[in-house]
Automatic annotation (TrEMBL):
Highest taxon of the lineage: Eukaryota
One annotated GO molecular function: hydrolase activity
Coiled coil: 247-278
PANTHER family: GDSL ESTERASE_LIPASE LIP-4-LIKE ISOFORM X1, ZINC FINGER FYVE DOMAIN CONTAINING PROTEIN
Keyword set, alphabetical order: Coiled coil, Glycoprotein, Hydrolase, Signal
InterPro entries per the UniProt record, alphabetical: GDSL (IPR001087), SGNH_hydro_sf (IPR036514), SGNH_plant_lipase-like (IPR035669)
Record has DNA repair as a keyword: no
Protein name per Swiss-Prot or TrEMBL: GDSL esterase/lipase
Similarity remark: Belongs to the 'GDSL' lipolytic enzyme family.
Gene3D superfamilies, per database record: SGNH hydrolase
CDD domains, per the entry: SGNH_plant_lipase_like (cd01837)
Taxonomic lineage from the root: Eukaryota, Viridiplantae, Streptophyta, Embryophyta, Tracheophyta
Length: 373
């Protein structure tokens, strides 16, 4: 792997970030899966962690990320833990709308097409710890109550009353909950606590629904057992390694979380009148990418592009991407993993393309359904 060396500002590890932070037919009718251009201005409100954080952590904590973060597309660091665009960025591009401004960004934000409440390191619990899902929810409810009033007073770049009702509410969280649990608890207890995480997501969706939201897009969590960061820092033996070289216990926990999250979506789909709740199997997309990486044009799926240590993982918790001594690959377009935790822009593009196909969605509706009804 060709590499270059450099130095940059501190990029926190996942663990550091974590602490900062059958039924379908019985329910309501669902929109068509046929793709079409938006008939009205798309508005998106996103909730989540670093997988969809477009700069909230950087703005909120005053951490100045530097290159090589952002090098592939923006050619400068933007607060994204990636070499370029995230999956949420590609989804916004598919609607011909601007990237989402972080809610915490005070320097020139534009909230006319929604806002991004996601913050790196966020989890569902504890509810009142910044920037948990519960805190993101309260930030949204404040934004929801203030925006129409401020618009009436002449402020620009905000969302009006109709925009909130017609918006898409995207949720992508849960990975950090599982990672944090595994640092101190055995597998059985981690599995036993999953219901608590899912109930926090239920609370968030219900709260948004009660405030007038009716369109929800829920991503499950990916195969965290395949992250170089965890493969290096988690004590394990050969029995815990699956056929792809990933941590079986962590991936099994992710599958159980996803099973319960899908069940939640099925329950809410029948309980919420006139609401559409779409569940996205991101785990299946990412697992396929890793399992069939050669077919998809990638190499070394368990090895970080930016890090230290070389094969097989190029991850060193003491010399992470951006710290003095790191190395970075020349062609991240062939790498799945960027920094040991987060995916490259190329991998995010792959994920977004599969999401937009509707083949991994339940129900199988097009991503732009909410701006075409």
């Amino acid at each position: 792997m060709a590499t270059t060396r450099g130095e940059g500002s501190f990029v926190p590890s996942l663990r550091t970030l974590s602490y900062y932070a059958v039924m379908l037919g019985l329910c309501l009718g669902l929109p068509s899966s046929a793709a079409s251009r938006c008939k009205r201005k798309p508005v998106i409100f996103n909730f989540g962690d670093s997988n969809s954080d477009t700069g909230g952590f950087s703005a909120g904590l005053g951490i100045n990320f530097t290159l090589p973060a952002g090098r592939a597309f923006f050619h400068e660091a933007t607060g994204r833990l990636c070499d370029g665009r995230l999956t949420i960025d590609f989804l916004c591009e598919s609607l011909n709308t601007s990237f989402l401004s972080p809610y915490l960004e005070s320097l020139g934000p534009n909230f006319s097409n929604g806002a991004n409440f996601a913050v790196a390191g966020a989890a569902t619990i504890p509810r009142y710890q910044p920037f948990s899902l519960g805190v993101q929810l309260r930030q949204f409810l404040l934004f929801r109550s203030r925006s129409p009033l401020l618009l009436s007073r002449g402020h620009a770049n905000l969302v009006g009353e109709d925009g909130f009702a017609d918006a898409l509410y995207t949720i992508d969280i849960g990975q950090n909950d599982l990672v944090i649990q595994f640092t101190t608890l055995p597998y059985s207890q981690v599995i036993g606590n999953i219901l608590v995480f899912v109930e926090e997501i239920r609370f968030a969706i219900w709260s948004i629904y009660q405030s007038g939201g009716k369109n929800f897009w829920v991503h499950n969590t990916g195969p965290l057992g395949c992250l170089p960061n965890l493969l290096v820092t988690t004590a394990h033996d050969a029995s815990d390694i699956d056929e792809l070289g990933c941590l079986r216990s962590h991936n099994d926990a992710a599958r159980e979380f996803n099973r319960r999250l899908q069940s939640l979506c099925e329950e809410l789909r029948c309980q919420m009148k006139n609401a559409t709740i779409v569940y996205i199997d991101v785990f299946a997309i990412k697992y396929d990418l890793i399992a069939n990486h050669v077919e998809h044009g990638f190499e070394n799926p368990l090895m970080a592009c930016c890090g230290n240590g070389g094969p097989p993982y190029n991850y060193n918790p003491n010399i992470t991407c951006g710290r003095s001594g790191y190395t970075v690959c020349n062609e991240a377009s062939r790498h799945v993993n960027w920094d040991g935790v987060h995916y490259t822009e190329a991998a995010n593009s792959f994920v977004a393309t599969r999401i937009l196909s509707s083949n991994y969605s339940t129900p199988p509706v097009a991503f732009d359904f909410f701006c075409n009804v």
